[in-house]
Amino acid sequence: MNDRPTAEELLRAVERFLEREVVPRLDGVPKFHARVAANVVAMVAREIETADAHEHGEWLRLGELLGSDEPCPEGREARRDALVERNRALVARIRAGDADAGTFRAELLAHLRRTVAEKLDVAKPPRER
Prior knowledge:
Strand content: under 5%
Number of domains: 1
Order of helices and strands: HHHH
């Protein structure tokens, strides 16, 4: 484990530097590019900060949809690989027509809404400055 500052803290420091020191001193296209860079840094920080919770939640929701109580893999790479496999299984059920109507459809839509909301939470633009 690395000591402080953490990756998240470093990214947030770069974001603050760009927003407070760089962006205000620029105009036009360079200002726009500096703001885009600050937003990218903020997105990466949010992804790192939320990845474990979002992936674990997706794992549990997919498990409910697919009828699996298999424990969530611990390592990030293993968890992401396993999520891809679970999503493939979900796609197969959708293609088979299981989501055309009924309870499964409602549960699927709830899962998709939650998953998309979490993705948008990471990608959301910063509040007005």
